[in-house]
Amino acid sequence: MVANVGYFSLVLAFVVALYGAGAAAYGARRRKPAFVESARHALLLTWPLVSVAALTIIVLLVRGEYEIAYVASVTSNAMPPYLRITALWGGQAGSLVFWSWLMSAFASAVGLRKWSRDRDLLPWVIVATMVTLSFFLSLVIFFENPFARLWLSPEGQQLTALFRPAGASPIFPSDGQGLNPLLRHPGMIIHPPMLYLGFVSFVIPFAFAIGALVTGRTDDRWIRITRRWTLVAWLFLSLGLILGGRWAYDVLGWGGYWGWDPVEIAAFMPWLSGTAFLHSVMIQEKRRMLKQWNMVLIILTYALVIFGTFLTRSGVLSSVHAFAQSAIGPMFFGFIGLTFVISVSLLIHRWDALKGENQLQSMLSRESLFLLNNLLFMGILVVCFWGVIFPLLSELFTGQKVTLGPQFYEPATGPLFAALLLLMGVAPLSAWGGRSWRVLGRAIWLPTLLSLAVPVVLLLQGVALWPALLGYWLVGFVALVTLYEFWRGAMARHRRGENLPLALWRLAGRNRRRYGGYVIHLGVVVMAIGIIGIEFFQTETQGTLAQGEQLTLGRYVMTYDTLAQWDEPDGRNITRAVISVYQDGRRVGELHPRRDYYYASQQPMTIPGVRATLEGDLYMLLVGWEPIATEGATFKVYQNPVVNFVWFGGLVFILGTLVAAWPEREAEYALATAPARRRDAAAEGAAE
Amino acid sequence: MKPRLLRLFLLLVGLLLWMPVSAGAQEGEPTDDEVNAIAHQLYCPVCENIPLDVCPTQACVQWRGTIRQMLREGRTEEEIKDYFVQQYGERVLATPPARGFNWLAYVIPPAAFLGGAIVLAQTMRRWRRPAREEAASPAPQAEDPFIERLEQELRKRA
Q1: In a domain, A125, yes or no
Q2: What is the distance between the terminal CA atoms of chain A, rounded to a whole angstrom?
Q3: What residues of chain B lie within 8 A of the CB of A685, using their CB?
Q4: Containing domain of residue B107, as a range?
Q5: Helix (H) or strand (E) holding A240
Q6: Collapsing DSSP states into helix, strand and coil, what is residue A162?
């Protein structure tokens, strides 16, 4: 009964979304504002409708109604209520509903804004968001129905269908299979919603871009309206990626946080194009350049958002053939193709109108450096995209499956990341419009020289790996330049009588985007410390020990004390070893690497024992053991130097994004007071 | 000492000397680290995208056993990798050998990057020209006092 309510509201939402898209387009074409207004109401109605569906699923999950196939596949009696709620995004059908729910929420938020100045964009924003929403809803309604029930056919076969198949009788299982154990981690509970929030919020700037293309409004109004949306999208996407990395580090048990797995890259690609977009829209706002390119970037980002969902949801990654078998794979493929072709044709149609005032006064201007930044981001994107699709192409054309592991991505992207770091150091010293070599040289020589101290000190300490030295030099260089920017700005205010902390606070507060951006750069620098550390200096060893025996890695000695095995009430069997850790002969603690075995899903999980310090992590895995514990167990130990800088850097990074995205009261004030036709200029003045 | 006793003594000494040598040969048993160094470069065809050295499944444990066995037999790293390629295809390698169709995997990204760089360089050159022409004409006047004040403020802030 409850399930029927959910299904009905999904169908209704689908019809309403389709109507909204149709009415908006009709109203805009025939200049009938009543239709557009009706379409806006339809858009606002989708959110309550999809909410009812999502809530219905949650109710079914929490109540454990296992006659619903989805509930039986992702929950079990042993799961606590909070995990049952998060099971909404723990499986295919639920996560597609969740995606749709976020999409309708964001579309409604946009629908509720004041449209007085941008009436002409409204219908096309409705079309773009509602078409996207109805596509996702159609997947749930026609292919991956979360409300389908389990039935037993007269032949004794188990069926999954919404309505009773002829002669079949309903099944009421007493327990479900439970959530994939890998997903029962705090990082994994928050990671998918963050990623989806990021994905979905990128649809909004895309929708406005489409609006601008259709209506021919070639000014940068769409960029100004969606600036904050883009930042919010980017914030969530970054957060999703960082949390995903943390989850992999804690749960997957291979000693790292990023394995260049296609699923990771699927989320990383829209982040790359989105980052390029964030930078290049600044050129359009400041210099009225790159109107065409920004359109290309946002269309690409939207396509990559859908492509990312497609990669993770269609099964295409395991095999091209699995993709053909899954019902939603070809649907996704068609939708990506269709939206991409339509957007690109619109762009080509407006290409000349978007020519803009492209001119460069100097190759050393900030806009030139931003262009280089875009080239590098696109370079990394190409490597990622090609790395993900090449194995599929290979299987398709030669029948031969191939693997592209980190050994493919790292040498290809490493130099590009290094070049990005270099740009990050040089760009703050440059100026819009440009500087001469002499002026830039004068600004640059001191930080260059000072930051050389970093590799020199490392060299003296015996670090003799030139790529790492180069990396740490760049880290020092960027950190110095960025911190100096803060110092310069704060001192200027300080001289006018503000105390230094207040000066810093106000500085960041008045120029949120600029200084938020610098904080993000500092976050990247701190993360880079950790990434270079684990990339070049990770060490590992493995050994089979009898109780009392030792394993040595660097300055650490690990003694295998005991091993215990027991059952948990939540359906797990835990095998846990106790290891004493000695550093330079002194006992510094205990590690508890363990292996959890989930009976229901027959899935083992390797949970590392970690000793985390600022200096680095000692990361120990229980690889295997003999049935009689005294006979020995096999352990693998990693020493991950400075890895925790990755997480600290991530925090700084997120903080910086919050600073940049925080609403600016002053900008609103300027908007209200300045004459209407100068509003854009005033907003720019207040923002910078 | 009688010659027979001497011979026995020498035999014992020889045995004692020989035993550590054979124990040394026993230590030639490949270590886990040696096995992992090779396994790290391989992927099993079952568990997708997980390097063989860290894969926890039973199948992968057996594969690592195979590597250990082959090391024990004195096979080189290359021979072991070749064996796995022959058995399970090129997908077991972390990167496919650069020949035939696979060649494209390595050529396309740098070619695309180079293409992008060339397009960017040309675009930047084209965009510089009007700027030079404009430099000869006087700087455009601000059209109204509001913009002028804004410009001033901006200059002050910069």
Answers
A1: yes
A2: 57
A3: 150, 153-154
A4: 99-128
A5: helix A221-247
A6: coil
Rounded to whole angstroms, how far apart are CA atoms B30 and B24?
12
Three-state secondary-structure class, residue A150: strand
With CB atoms and an 8 Å threshold, state whether A403 touches B41: no
The H or E element spanning position A556 is strand A556-567
Supply φ then ψ for residue A574, to 5 degrees: -110, 130
Distance CA A48, CA A68 (A): 23
Report whether A226 contacts A301 (CB < 8 A).
no
| Nearest chain A alpha carbon to B93 | A403
Nearby residues of A243 by Cβ (< 8 Å), 6 or more positions away: A187, A190, A191, A194
Residue A167 included in any domain: yes
User: A257 near A305, Cβ under 8 Å?
Assistant: no
Sign of the torsion angle spanned by Cα atoms A231, A233, A236, A237: negative
For residue range B21-60, what is the model confidence (pLDDT) as tens digits?
A: 444 344 478 899 999 999 999 987 777 778 888 887 888 8
ipTM of the complex: 0.85
Q: Residues of B with CB below 8 A from A358's CB?
A: 123, 127
Asked whether the beta carbons of A68 and A148 are under 8 A apart, the reply is yes
Nearest to A405 among B94, B104, B120 (CB): B94
In a domain? residue A54: yes
Give bridge partners of residue A540 from the DSSP assignment. A638
Residue B91 binned pLDDT confidence (cut-offs 50, 70, 90):
confident
Task: Say how far apart CA A174 and CA A195 lie, in whole Å.
Answer: 34
Residues of chain B found within 8 Å of residue A254, distances taken between Cβ atoms:
50-51, 54
Evaluate whether residue B136 is within a structural domain. no
Same domain, A460 and A545: no
Query: Within a 10 A sphere around the Cβ of A205, how many other Cβ atoms?
Result: 27
Give residues with Cβ within 8 angstroms of A492, minimum separation 6. Answer: none
CB contact under 8 A, B93 and A403: yes
Specify if B145 maps to a domain: no
| Interacting residues of A544 by C-beta distance below 8 A, sequence separation 6+ | A632, A633, A634, A635, B32
Three-state DSSP class for A174? coil
Mean pLDDT by 10 residues, chain A (688 residues): 91 97 95 94 97 96 93 89 89 92 96 88 96 96 92 88 87 86 78 92 95 89 90 93 90 86 91 95 86 93 93 74 71 93 94 80 85 96 95 89 91 95 92 80 89 94 91 96 90 83 84 90 96 94 91 93 90 92 93 90 87 92 77 90 94 94 59 42 40
- Judge: B51–A541 Cβ closer than 8 Å, yes or no: no
A317 touches chain B (CB under 8 A): yes
In a domain, B14, yes or no: no
Identify residue A621 by its one-letter amino acid code: L
Q: Per the structure, how many domains does chain B have?
A: 2
User: Mind telling me how many Å the CA of A390 is from chain B's nearest CA?
Assistant: 7
Helix (H) or strand (E) holding A374: helix A366-398
Residue B38 shares a structural domain with residue B53: yes
Asked if residue A445 is part of any domain, the answer here is: yes
Q: Are A294 and A277 in contact (CB under 8 A)?
A: yes
Is the Cβ–Cβ distance between A410 and A265 less than 8 Å? no
From residue B150, alpha-carbon distances to A283, A334, A359, A373, A634 in Å are 19, 49, 23, 29, 70
C-alpha span between A344 and A362 (Å, rounded): 31
Question: Among A379, A397, A542, whose Cβ lies nearest the Cβ of B32?
Answer: A542
Largest Cα span, chain A: 87
Which residue type sits at B132?
R
The total number of structural domains that make up chain A: 3
* Range of the structural domain that residue A639 is part of: 539-645
Q: Between residues 619 and 658 of chain A, which touch chain B (CB distance below 8 Å)?
A: 623-624, 634, 636
**Mean pLDDT score of chain B, rounded to an integer?**
75
Q: Which of residues 493-532 of A touch B (CB under 8 A)?
A: 511
